[in-house]
Design goal:
By secondary structure, the protein is of the alpha/beta class. It contains nine helices and 13 strands. It has helices at residues 11-22, 71-78, 118-133, 155-163, 183-196, 213-223, 255-260, 267-280, 291-299, and strands at residues 2-6, 26-31, 42-45, 59-65, 83-90, 138-141, 144-146, 168-170, 177-178, 180-182, 202-204, 211-212, 230-232. The longest helix is centred in the middle third of the chain and has 16 residues, at 118-133. The protein starts with a strand and ends with a helix.
């Protein structure tokens, strides 16, 4: 296939570009060339909102739009002169208001989520613009992505704590559920969409099984070869100062995904792969938050 991928240099878009190159596809990436490119791709070097004539008269079998966060991002790409057979947009579970009954399903009304704010409503507006102009586009709504090339300080934070044999301060609600989706499963599901072209065009994607934050921390320590000693933080302390997820539990209904792809990589296997990669690429996590500094300065003396 001839594939256009928006992004291609960080986490999800980087993994996706590499995956489809390895499968023998012709992959073109659209980014500002601010980081190293995946070997084997063709680069279109520009800001996606100012493509100029770089995409005019170009045709692709599919556009995998992984870096659209606003309606304007979709609009400028569609008006660039590019043509395509299929369009897959990676949206977000943040499009579901937290007031909706859970698990969230694809038939529910979407809109503003107070936890995610503008990020969620901008993703929703991007969906609406895309479907208005390309009714046959596919939209995927994931929970938390994880896996190789992760650039947020989530799993890496817990891995670092484990390797340093640190006590782990966990939020009081240790049973809060988390739902994940590995980037490798995303690529598999995209391949299924493009081969089967199902009638449904909006899919929640993610692991069928959730995990509590306590179980997740314990698993990360286990994979790092350590046993965790957990301390419950006081509820008066803002969770995001010392922990890598918001105090917000949600679950996606992924039954429509499971019809097409009933199996996903186990969380333990996926985290093991990510830990192996992270040990050799610690500098790839760009957006580090000072959780450990806060813990050392404000939490340890409360023990």
């Amino acid at each position: 296939m001839d594939i256009l991928i928006t992004g291609g240099t960080t986490f999800v878009s980087k993994y996706t570009a590499e995956h489809f190159v390895k499968k023998g596809n012709n992959v073109t990436v659209l980014n500002r060339n601010s980081r190293k490119q995946i070997p084997g791709v063709e680069l279109i070097n520009c800001d996606r909102t100012e493509p100029g004539n770089r995409l005019k008269n170009r045709h692709f079998d599919v556009i995998l739009d992984i870096t659209a966060y606003t309606e304007h991002h979709i609009e400028t790409l569609l008006q660039s002169g590019v043509t395509f057979d299929d369009y897959v947009f990676i949206s977000s579970s943040a499009v579901y208001p937290e007031t909706n009954p859970q698990p969230f399903n694809e038939q529910q009304q979407c809109g503003r989520n107070s936890i995610w704010g503008d990020y969620g409503i901008n993703k929703y507006n991007a969906e609406q613009y895309l479907l208005k102009h390309i009714p046959g586009a596919y939209i995927l709504c994931p929970p938390y992505f994880y896996g190789i090339y992760e650039n947020l300080y989530r799993e890496a934070f817990v891995f670092d704590c484990a390797v340093q044999n640190r006590l782990f301060f966990i939020p009081p609600n240790q049973d809060m559920k988390l739902q994940f989706f590995n980037v490798s499963d995303l690529c598999r599901f995209i391949e299924i969409l493009l081969s089967q072209h199902p009638n449904n065009h909006i899919f929640n994607v993610g692991n069928d099984k959730t995990v509590t934050i306590k179980e997740w921390v314990q698993l990360c320590y286990k994979i790092a070869g350590k046993e965790v000693r957990i301390i419950s933080a006081d509820k008066s302390i803002p969770q995001r100062d010392y922990f890598c997820f918001h105090d917000y539990e949600y679950v996606l209904d992924v039954s429509e995904q499971n019809v097409l792809m009933p199996d996903t990589i186990s969380l333990e296997k996926g985290l093991t792969e990510e830990f192996g990669w992270y040990k050799n690429n610690p500098d790839s996590v760009y957006y580090r938050r000072p959780y450990m500094d806060f813990i050392d300065d404000y939490l340890k003396d409360r023990l």
